[in-house]
Amino acid sequence: MNYDVIVIGSGPGGYIAAIRASQLGLKAAIIEKYSTLGGTCLNVGCIPSKALLDSSHHYYDAVKHFEEHGILVDTPKIDFPKMIDRKAKVVEQTTGGINYLMDKNKIKVYEGMGSFVDKNHVKVSMSDGPEETIEGKNIIIATGSKPSNLPFITLDKERIITSTEALNLPEIPKHLLVIGGGVIGLELGSVYKRLGANVTVIEYMNTIVPEMDTDVSKELQKVLKKQGLKFFTSHGVNSVERKGNEITVKATNKKGVEVEFKGDYCLVSVGRKAYTEGLGLENIGIKVNERGQIQINDHLQTNIPNVYAIGDVVKGAMLAHKAEEEAVVVAEMIAGQKPHINYNLIPGIVYTWPEVAAVGKTEQELKDEKRDYNSGKFSMRALGRSRASGDIDGFVKVLADKNTDEVLGVHIVGARAADLIMEAVVVMEFSGSAEDIARICHGHPTYSEAMKEAAKAAWDGKPLNA
After folding, report:
1. Burial class of residue 188 (count of CB atoms within 10 Å of its CB; 0-12, 13-18, 19+)
2. 88 within some domain
3. Angstrom distance (rounded) from CA 466 to CA 376
4. How far apart are CA 331 and CA 7, in angstroms?
5. Is residue 155 a part of any domain in this protein?
6. Upper half-sphere CA count for residue 332 (Cβ side, 13 Å)
7. Cβ distance 280 to 306 under 8 Å?
8. pLDDT for residue 141
9. Alpha-carbon gap, residue 448 to 412, rounded angstroms
10. Is the dihedral of CA 191, 197, 198, 201 positive or negative?
């Protein structure tokens, strides 16, 4: 079979690349080694984790907040198997939707492991049949990532686990130890804390979510600590051992003293790494960097011009929406168009509660660049909408160029931050100013008013409700 585009991997990057290529009149095929489409995000990442986050949030509200709203119920009980079953149904519905999109767009799906024979031919080792070799003018690698590990930790995938197993535990942990205070660890730690587990987060750096703005890291840690999570930052893990159902983690703190943590489950969430095993990159000489990521140029091409790579398998933030944007860009370039992508405007989001969202430069990055800027900050607590819902934690911070007032970065901790951040992305895409945001009429009462107030604080230093 001959195709204009062959995509290896069916995650958000892969399936979107195939769809966009088909929309532009190109004959497309997709290769997926698993029996369901959607990759990590839909099967064991974004979608199932959000399903559990929402379910656990409902339970937490019923236990902690219903009474203050005048809602009196008997003590809620958790049917954990049913919660997990609901999560599985959400995944099934979502992945089934991808099958529909493949049929709708006339994309041929090959179930099996794809590997390069040469730069135009890919061998598909079928999961339920013989090998088949298909030909493509252009090939897109979208094989994603898998959880990283520390070299001295043995993952038994029962009690010493990755995020994949954390989504399918047979029980709620009594005490979950989380190694890594990044997005994945905090989200899954939040799920089990809401459901009644003790949760201890052990982080090597001196702040959680260390890649985010310092104010955001501090605020999120304060709020999650108030919810009951325990944090041990500046702790380097030395060993993880299991004896029966007990896990012991030993770590060295910033004073050089070794401390010990005990729990019944240990989630290792120390990042993710590019997944390229079995692709046969060596067969055509595709280059990878020291981190195992496929090397690309500004057009997402590998050193083999007709072979492209997108998403988690290349440099940059490992985010589903980043992979989707790269997918569209590659498909359109192959079709002869001239698309663009602005990596500075890809938002980062943490789906704890309150949520965290950010786009553009952090304050520390602007200081390092010695760039003059104004900072405007507004507390969610000052909003009528926040007081009405009881979601008073967090803030919006707007960073703007001191001379031009162009918005350089926006950082949010608060209810619906994941949705609020898109106003900032749109403004920044058009090089808008803090004054532009401040002069837009925002609905009242809404959480978005915090964006208007923070922008006004950055523009003229005079927010109206603070």
Report:
1. buried
2. yes
3. 11
4. 10
5. no
6. 12
7. no
8. 98
9. 11
10. negative
Q: How far apart are CA 437 and CA 434, in angstroms?
A: 5
DSSP secondary structure code for residue 281 in this structure: G
In this structure, what is the dihedral angle of CA atoms 334, 337, 343, 349, given to the nearest 10 degrees? -80
Total residues belonging to the chain: 466
Do 11 and 120 fall within a single domain?
A: yes
Please, are residues 208 and 220 in contact by the beta-carbon 8 Å criterion? yes
In tens, the pLDDT along 378-412 reads 999 999 999 999 999 999 999 999 999 999 999 99
Q: Domain end: 341, 370, 397, which one? A: 341
On whether the CB atoms of residues 25 and 156 are closer than 8 A, the answer is no
Which two tokens mark 99?
């099958």
Tell me the two tokens of residue 8.
């290896």
Domain that holds residue 28: 2-147+273-341
Tell me the C-alpha distance between 191 and 280, whole Å.
39
**Contact call for residues 237 and 249 (beta carbons, < 8 A):** yes
Domain membership of residue 442 (yes or no) is yes
Decide: helix, strand or coil at residue 454. Answer: helix
Buried b (16+ CB within 10 A) or exposed e, 90-128: bbeebbeebeebbeeeebebbbbbbbbeebbebbbbeee
Residues 22 and 139 in one domain: yes
Q: What is the pLDDT of residues 213-227, one digit of tens each?
A: 999 999 999 999 999
Positions marked active-site:
444
Q: Note whether 418 and 440 are same-domain residues.
A: yes
Cα–Cα–Cα angle for 135, 140, 144, rounded to 5 degrees: 130
pLDDT tens readout for residues 301-341: 999 999 999 999 999 999 999 999 999 999 999 999 999 99
Residue with tokens 């809401």: 194
Q: How far is Cα 325 from Cα 413, in angstroms, rounded to an integer? A: 25
Instruction: Measure the CA–CA gap between 98 and 43, rounded to whole angstroms.
Output: 12
Following CA atoms 19, 25, 27, 31 in sequence, which dihedral angle do they give, to the nearest 10 degrees? -10
Judge if 402 and 374 occupy the same domain.
yes
At 138, the amino acid letter reads: N
- Determine the angle formed by the axes of helices 320-334 and 12-23, rounding to 10 degrees: 30
Domain boundary among 270, 287, 306: 270
> What is the Cα gyration radius of the chain?
23
Contact by Cβ (8 Å): 421, 347: yes
Q: CA 118 to CA 158: how far, in whole Å?
A: 40
Q: Does 29 fall in a domain?
A: yes
Q: Are residues 64 and 110 in the same domain?
A: yes
Q: Number of structural domains, the chain?
A: 3
CB-based burial label for 338 (10 Å; 0-12, 13-18, 19+): exposed
Tokens of 230: 């325990």
